[in-house]
Every structure is written in structure tokens, then in C-alpha cells.
Amino acid sequence: MDRRRFVTATTVGLGLAALRPAIAASGKESAARGQSRVIIDTDPGVDDAFALLLAMCSSQLHIEAITAVAGNVPLELTLPNALRMVEIAGRTDIPVAAGARAPLLRRLVTAAYAHGENGLGGAVFAEPKRTPVAESAADLIQKIVRKYPGEITLITLGPQTNIATALNADPGLAPLVRSVVMMGGSLSGGNITPAAEFNVYVDPEAARIVFQSGIPITMVGLDVTRKTTLTDQHVATLAAHDNPVSQAAALIGRNSLAHHRAQGLPSGPNMHDSVAVAAFLDPAIVTTEPFYVDVETGGELTAGETLGYRVPHAPPQPPVRGSAPLLGSLKSSPILRERPEPNAHVALDLDAAAFFELLIGRLSAGA
Ligand code: RIB
Ligand code: CA
């Protein structure tokens, strides 16, 4: 079966489970010691680096694995950058796996203009000594989810290619995943195009598979992450603390701010990915509402756009309308879905002060 038909078949075949509040499912009754078991999928990436360090400095998380994916920069850089963060945090107990070098059906588009050619804003660290595990990211995700059915939250910080690959390879996997907390999407316009947020833009087919998987989803998109610009003051605070995590974050932050200025970008980097981790650590930091979210995969200009349909508490329930059928189409109606069920809790507001207090406080304290 060719890849396009495989992806389509998987998408159509996956049912929508009743939506459970993904964040509310975080935590208390899962792993022993009151920790929440998570897998972090990432494309470091300046903000991914901050998010990984935040997660590794947070004792509420039992990080079962970190899986690298191509995105901000190619996998040849995102994988060693993930290994570097694990070494800096002294968390070489966490297995790191290599994932997809490219999206499911598209050529890879990177964001080196924003993250620097090395993915860390130009900040230079030693080559990692750690090596990745032998399993691929998708295989490791399947193995861990099946080892801990109902306990694993997938925190996705990059294009969702690895997650979709795991779901495609194991159609029985989705009901065993506790939840997905994604940095991805936007209901208020994109960042790489006016329509699309970068992670979903890079692999819209993968994102659609995740949104239609039935797994409880919290979508932490640009609607809230735009409020998290790193400043010189944040960097000064990090630099004033003498531990490897704080010093590394300060170095990456300082280089990234300089890179943004050199590129003529209006402000420093947003801490997009750390908001997803923070929202899992402390759900009160974000305000969410239930939506039916679908992903544009056909647009010439809009591929990767996430469209949110608010589901009203009482009728009338607006249907999901697609584009007007072309004359040559057999379809006579644009209706795609009569009564959309919510499939994601979308973050619409953020307590930015509480967020930065958590982020800078945890990183300053170190692992
Ligand atoms: O659009 C922001 C997202 O794209 C973040 O995850 C950033 O790291 C990039 O991957
Ligand atoms: Ca990222």
C-alpha cells in the first residue's frame, strides 16, 4: 500500500473516542511515587531545549523516553541536540531515540532562520557522549505505551511524524495512550504562513492522524504561546545561577536573542514548547475550551492550518463544512461532518507571569 493511501486509510479508520480532559488526566494516580509517565517528542530547537530542561528539572515527571524528529533543523542536528540536553541535565538515565528524517508525505521544511543553523541559536556545546538507543522513535513509543497501558502522556514539541508513524504501525495503540499534550496548531493565524503553525505546517498529515486518533488531546498553540517571549532579563536571571542547566539555558537564550536581532526579527524567541510542558505540570496555567479541530492537508496556501469548531453546549450544532464542491466533483454538498464531537481541549489563555515564574524558577534551580 503506497504511503498516501496508507495515511488516508489510517485516518479514516480511526474512530473518535469520547473526549476526556487530557490535562485533567495528568498525574496523581499513574506511576508510583506520584509521578506522571511521559514521552517527549521533540525537534530541538531553541524552545525545545528550554522545554526539555524544564521537564528534566521537574520531579513530577517520569520521562520514559525522549524521541527526536526532524523539524526546526534536520534530524542530524535535532538528535544530538536532544542528547546534549540530557547530558547537561545529568539525566543520562533517559533513553533517547532517533525518529523521522522527513514528514510522512512532504519534503522537510526547516526553521533554521529562527533557531540558527545548529538549532540552538548558535550556542555551541560539546559533542554528546551519549548515543541514541537502537530502537526507532516509533518503535520505542509503541513499546513504552504497551508496557504502561493507560499511563503514558505524549508531549509533542515538533512535527508529529513519529507519533503518527507509531499509530499507523500499531492500530491498537491509540486507546492505550493516556493523552497527548501538543505544542502545535493555532486558531488565530500561523507563524510560518498566515494560516499554519510550524509543527503542523511541516507535517499536516501526521497532525490530522493525531487529531483523529481519539486520544484525549490538549492543544497548546500559538493562541497562548505568542505571549511567552524570552527577554534579556530572563537570561540575566538564568546566568546569575551557577548550575549546568541554568548556565546552558542562559547561553542558548543569549545566543538566540542575538540571532533574532541579527535577523531583524521584532523580538526574542517565544518559549512555545515550554508552555506545553508547563500546561501539563500545572494545568491552571492555561484556560482551555473543547473544540472539534481538523487540519487542512490540501491547501496550496493553507496546508497545516488547524480549524477549530466550537461545539456549543446546546443546539443548533453547526456542521463541519468543507470547501464548495467543484463542478467535476461527485459531491453535491460541502457538509463533511454533521455533528462534530470535540476532539481537543484548546488553550485559549495563559497566565504568562505564572508560566515564566515556573520556567525561570525551575531552570535557575537546576536539575
Ligand atoms: O511553531 C512553534 C513550534 O515550531 C515550536 O515547537 C518550535 O520549536 C517549532 O518546532
Ligand atoms: Ca519544537
Describe the structure.
With 367 residues, the protein is α/β, with parallel strands linked by helices. It has a single domain (34-365), classed as Inosine-uridine Nucleoside N-ribohydrolase, Chain A (Alpha-Beta Complex). It contains 13 helices and eleven strands. The protein has helices at residues 3-13, 46-56, 75-88, 112-115, 137-147, 161-169, 198-202, 204-211, 222-225, 232-239, 244-262, 272-281, 352-365; strands spanning 36-42, 61-68, 96-98, 153-156, 179-183, 217-220, 286-295, 306-310, 320-321, 335-337, 344-350. The strands form two sheets. The protein has a nine-stranded mixed beta sheet with strand order 3-2-1-4-5-6-11-7-8, sandwiched between helices. The protein has a two-stranded antiparallel ribbon with strand order 9-10. Helix 2 (46-56) runs parallel beside helix 3, helix 5 crosses helix 6 (161-169) and helix 10 (232-239) runs antiparallel to helix 11. The N and C termini lie far apart (46 Å). Mean pLDDT is 92; it is low at 1-21 and 23-30. It binds alpha-D-ribofuranose and calcium ion (CA). Residues 43, 45, 47-48, 71-72, 111, 157-158, 183, 191, 197-199, 272-273 line the site of alpha-D-ribofuranose.
